[in-house]
UniProtKB/TrEMBL annotation:
The chain crosses the membrane at residues 105-129, 135-153, 165-194, 260-279. Residues 6-103 form the Neurotransmitter-gated ion-channel ligand-binding domain. This is CHRNN. InterPro entries: Neur_chan_lig-bd (IPR006202), Neur_chan_lig-bd_sf (IPR036734), Neur_channel (IPR006201), Neuro-gated_channel_TM_sf (IPR036719), Neuro_actylchol_rec (IPR038050), Neurotrans-gated_channel_TM (IPR006029). It is found in: Membrane.
């Protein structure tokens, strides 16, 4: 029975009977976690009078919104919108619509910011010197840290991918994949760096490195000529000394540079697309 037992009704002299029952209800609604933790949830409570037709009962709300005078604020959710609408049926019913917006500050500080920081730190592994011996361990540690944060995020979300997987989970998965690729790249870089000298560097790699050295020395000579000697630039500056010999250490150095640039671009693209997706969805 809806309402308090033995509750009273008010009979007016016009023949109108007023009944104001009190009842505590618990209901749940489907959650869309696509833009978690910047999501907004829409919950609908529908009150239906079963067994009666439009001639017996008519729901007429006294206002178009829900009275929130006794509403208690929640630390995680903010009530942003309410509405009340009645339909004659059949059967007669009244729908209460509520919009809840998540308060994201806690999750930004404890989830999103550490994830971005870990992904950024993961890229800096290519700045560590090869002789430090900490590159592979550093990369693996960050990979495991990202996996831990992915587990935390999955624990905060319901086990559903409808209407689609959460954007933050997609970012974490991409960061995990990128971290795995970085770990492999670091291992390959170390293998190249410590490769014995009796293995010759392929000619196509030598040509690429000689071209880079040529461009660098050309720029240096142009600056020197323009600022000091004020003479014509040297068309083909010679590559002398140790620079004429391409070693595996030089190959590893350029491999690290290329990897650093590539993963920085991947990092920027992934997180920019995530921000755009959240802004459009929000």
């Amino acid at each position: 029975m809806f309402g308090i037992k033995d509750s009273y009704v008010i009979i007016h002299n016009s023949g109108t009977v007023t009944w104001q029952p009190g009842h505590q209800l618990e209901f749940s609604c489907n959650i869309d976690t696509t833009y978690f933790p910047f999501d907004t949830q829409k919950c609908t409570l529908e009150v239906i009078s079963w067994g009666y037709n439009m001639g017996d009962i008519s729901f007429t709300p006294t206002s178009s919104y829900i009275n929130t005078l006794q509403y208690v604020e929640n630390s995680e959710w903010k009530l942003t919108f309410t509405s009340v609408a009645s339909e004659d049926g059949p059967p007669p019913n009244t729908k209460f619509l509520m919009h809840f917006q998540r308060r994201p500050l806690y999750l930004i500080i404890n989830l999103i910011f550490p994830v971005i920081l870990l992904a950024l730190l993961n890229i800096t592994v290519f700045l560590l010197p090869q002789d430090s011996g900490e590159r592979v361990g550093f990369a693996i540690t960050l990979l495991l840290s990202i996996v831990v944060f992915l587990t935390i995020a999955q624990g905060l979300l319901p086990a559903t991918a409808q209407p689609r997987l959460s954007a933050i989970c997609i970012v974490l998965i991409l960061n995990m994949v990128m971290s795995g690729m970085i770990t492999v790249s670091v291992i390959v870089s170390g293998w190249i760096y410590y490769k014995p000298e009796y293995y010759d560097v392929p000619n196509w790699i030598k040509k690429i490195i000689h071209f880079k050295l040529y461009r660098r020395r050309t720029n240096k000579n142009q600056i020197h000529v323009q600022t000091v000697q004020n003479e014509k630039t040297i068309d083909k500056p010679p590559i002398d000394g140790d620079e004429s010999k391409v070693t595996w250490q030089m190959v590893a150095k350029y491999y690290d540079r290329i990897s650093l640039i590539f993963y920085v671009i991947c990092f920027m693209c992934g997180h920019v697309f995530y921000a755009i997706d959240v802004v459009k969805g929000g």
